[in-house]
Write a structure and sequence with these properties.
The complex is a heterodimer of chains A (107) and B (691). Chain A is of the alpha/beta class. Helix content of chain A is 50%, strand content 12%. The chains are: A alpha/beta (107), B alpha+beta (691).
């Protein structure tokens, strides 16, 4: 999952500055690295994606978080957006859709 | 003038009137304030009288006239309502229906009508006195126009009543109409995002559909948002577009002073409501049969008004076959679009790319419009069930409180036409075998009246129709004993869960041959119901609890013709998995699949799910294992879930379902076939049957 989104972004010229395995790691990494963009799974071990987004936006209201969702997680995605995520992409990933979403978030 | 051309129209319109009459009769019987239902019945009978006289259906018109005279006495209080009279009125409604269906020109009163009239007069006493004459065609113009008049107090609401309330405050505002791209994934979230972005620019006064409904939407939407805002047109449009997957945005600004001009949605003009005869006479002067068309328009509009539709629109009846043709054409167009997309993808010509993008969007809009035009509220079929349940209950000596929920839920016309029969089966079963007699219920400490609920609700891309009773439930032990005896379950089975129970009672002929008292008849029809529902690409879900009742849910696709599907590859073959049954998808993390008691299971969050391999299900030869590219689709039906392993998920596509006959014979593994965007054929997996 991570590698797939990573590959799509790298091919489009983005640099991956860090990766995290869990929600709480993601929050820590965000504070360390202050990336331009975060892509995050909704379901993660330890701290879930929604809580992680909430933590990150609390720390940086301008944080740009893009959620990665599977089919059928509509209500979770709405929750993530309410928590501060800026956009989302749905698996299976299509590179063009991922890049469109990234551009909307960064634009 | 050839009136036969209008016979179908007459019947269609009369059926609407009859269903209104039946509804009102039930309301009357349930003791609703008598005035309104009696007026409604009177109105319906009166309209049928007028129309049948125009058509020259003398018998029907005379019968309606007699009925009307009696109703008039009830209306004035001269005739009291008794249980006997109610029964006679129900019989009269049936006779009228029969008359409408059998109507022939100049045919006199049928024997059935005679009998019913005699009964009515016995019960009520006294024949109708007003002289009534069936009009000859030459006189039809004048008399029909008089007869088509409803009683004064039944006049349809004027347009003023229908105008949507102006937004509160009357300040500056905007109406934003948004249409989502046909290819939108999780359209509910996108719609929510669009509204959220608008909230940043002003106060959202109203959204149609509601924000909650939009948020739960599973198909791309068209919605309208009213805002109190000072933001400009382009600012609003930019905000909506930033939510993504927006096909079109139309912003109508409203200046602060002109608040009473009303929002854009009110711009759709209401049809002429004035039903004064003088307004209609010119039309009759041209062709008498126009009376039917005009009346038809009006009643349709009235129905829309009754449903409190936010905007009034004109309606026109279209033959279903035309909509079918349109749907087939747009289906073919969707396939061609996919092929064109594949062909133009590699082209370096930007003009071609742009034209292709435009065509793609337009075809998507066209498809959405045509699909929407085929949707009708389930109430159109459900409305005839209260009558059916009432008759059954009376006949069987049961006391039944019948409730219908979710009448407004919309479903494709062709699906709706097919579900009436299975629902009737389920309702019959519930009243006959599910609900106990009042005495038995009392003994069991339950209220004397049994509850029976028919409910419809949307669940993602499906509509679920549930028939639920609070009766005695099904005796698992008895069914199990019988199933063991007949070898329908493995020897040694000690318990039947709901799904296993359904499998047993849905076994053709189960229980009919046996006469298991408590469940007799339960099996009758369940196999037929299941066959029908499967043929529609749906699934049955079943729960029962002894002493507490039984619930049967029919899960149906909203539309039969074009569904969104996940495309899966196994070896060289491709299969379509309709999203109706797909819960989520995941890459196969090596740790996700474990072995428990020699069987593969999928550990998903806190759940342990069985694992199916599509390769094995479709009996393809085992491929090179460990290609590591396997993916898992979590499929579900009701409470049952499983992980379906495929080689690869290649994307999502709108597929046009072509059903084939093989579905009916045995192996119901596939619900149809389709042509994919690249022109290759694919089989559509009946996911429900895998569980």
């Amino acid at each position: 999952m991570r590698t797939m989104v990573g590959d799509i972004l790298q091919q489009a010229g983005f640099e991956i500055v860090g990766e995290a395995e869990t929600g709480s790691q993601a929050v820590e990494k965000y504070k360390q690295l202050r990336p331009d963009l975060v892509t995050m799974d909704i379901v993660m071990p330890d701290m879930g994606g929604i809580d992680a987004v909430r933590e990150i936006t609390k720390y940086d209201p301008n944080a740009k978080v893009l959620m990665c969702s599977a089919m059928g997680q509509q209500s979770l995605v709405v929750e993530a957006i309410q928590a501060g995520a800026k956009d989302f992409v749905v698996k299976p990933f299509q590179p063009s859709r991922v890049l469109e979403a990234v551009q909307r978030v960064l634009g | 003038m050839d009136r036969s051309r209008y016979a179908d129209l007459f019947r269609t319109e009369s059926r609407d009137q009859l269903s209104a009459i039946n509804r009102a009769l039930l309301a009357l019987e349930q003791g609703e304030a008598a005035r309104e239902p009696v007026d409604a019945i009177f109105r319906g009978v009166h309209t049928i009288k007028g129309m049948s006289a125009t058509m020259g259906y003398a018998g029907v018109a005379e019968f309606a006239h007699e009925l009307e005279s009696l109703l008039d006495k009830v209306r004035t209080g001269e005739q009291g309502l008794t249980a006997d009279l109610m029964d006679a009125l129900f019989a009269a409604a049936d006779a009228l229906e029969d008359g409408v269906e059998q109507a022939r020109e100049d045919a006199p009163l049928s024997p059935l009508m005679h009998r019913v009239l005699e009964r009515l007069h016995d019960v009520a006493g006294g024949r109708a006195t007003a002289e009534f004459r069936v009009v000859r065609p030459s006189e039809a113009f004048r008399i029909t126009s008089e007869m088509a008049l409803p009683p004064e107090d039944a006049a349809a609401p004027g347009p003023a009543a229908a105008a949507p309330a102006a937004p509160a405050g009357g300040g500056a505002g905007a109406t934003v109409e948004v249409v989502q791209e046909a290819s939108t994934l999780l359209p509910g979230v996108r719609a929510f995002m669009a509204i959220q972005r608008l909230r940043e620019l002003g106060e959202v006064l109203r959204s149609e559909p509601s924000v909650e409904a939009l948020q739960a939407a599973t198909v791309p939407q068209r919605f309208t948002v009213e805002l109190a805002t000072t933001a400009g047109e382009s600012e609003l449009e930019r905000a909506v577009r930033s939510a993504g997957d927006v096909a079109t945005v139309r912003v109508t600004l409203r200046a602060a002073a002109a608040a009473d001009a009303g929002p854009a949605v009110a711009a759709v003009s209401a049809p002429p409501y004035n039903r004064r005869a003088s307004d209609q006479l010119p039309a009759y002067g041209r062709r008498a049969s126009d009376a039917l068309a005009v009346d038809d328009l009006l009643t349709t509009a009235e129905r829309a008004a009754a449903a409190a539709a936010p905007s009034r629109t004109r309606h026109v009846r279209i033959e279903l076959s035309r909509l079918d043709t349109l749907l087939n054409l747009v289906g073919e167009l969707v396939i061609v679009r996919g092929r064109l997309q594949a062909l133009t993808r590699t082209s370096p010509d930007p003009a071609l790319q742009e034209a292709m993008a435009d065509a793609t969007r337009l075809i998507g809009d066209l498809q959405a419009e045509i699909m929407t035009s085929r949707l009708v509220p389930v109430g159109q079929v459900f409305d005839r069930f209260p009558r059916l349940v009432r008759d059954l209950a009376r006949q069987l000596g049961k006391d039944v409180l019948f409730a219908i929920e979710g009448k407004e839920i919309e479903i494709d016309r062709s699906v709706l036409d097919e579900i009436g029969e299975p629902v009737v089966h389920l309702l019959r079963n519930a009243v006959d075998h599910g609900l106990e007699t009042p005495e038995a219920r009392e003994t069991a400490g339950k209220p004397r009246a049994g509850r029976l609920t028919l409910a419809a609700h949307r669940d993602r891309a499906a509509v679920v129709v549930t028939v639920r009773d609070d009766g005695r439930g099904i005796d698992r032990e008895k069914v199990l004993a019988r199933a063991l005896e007949r070898g329908l379950v493995d020897a040694g089975t000690t318990r039947l869960d709901d799904a296993a129970l359904l499998a047993v009672i849905a076994h053709p002929g189960f229980s009919t041959a046996e006469q298991v008292t408590d469940v007799s008849g339960r099996g009758v029809g369940i196999d037929a119901v299941q066959a029908k529902v499967r043929a529609l690409g749906g699934a049955l879900e079943f729960t029962t609890e002894p002493g507490r009742g039984t619930s049967v849910a029919i899960r149906l696709p909203v539309t039969l013709a074009i569904v969104r599907a996940l495309l899966a590859r196994v070896g060289e073959e491709r299969y379509a998995l309709p999203l109706t049954h797909v819960r989520e998808t995941m890459e196969r993390a090596p740790a996700a699949i474990r072995q428990v008691q020699g069987k593969d299971v999928l550990v998903l969050r806190d759940e342990v799910l069985p694992v199916l391999r599509l390769r094995e299900v479709v009996q393809l030869p085992a491929g090179a294992r460990g290609s590591a590219a396997e993916e898992i689709v979590v499929i579900e039906r009701g409470d049952r879930r499983a992980g379906l392993v495929v080689d690869e998920l290649t994307g999502q596509e709108d597929i046009v379902v072509k059903s084939f006959d093989a579905v009916r014979d045995g192996a119901a593994l596939f619900s149809g076939a389709t042509i994919l965007a690249d022109g290759a054929p694919a089989l559509i997996v009946d996911v429900g049957s895998l569980l």
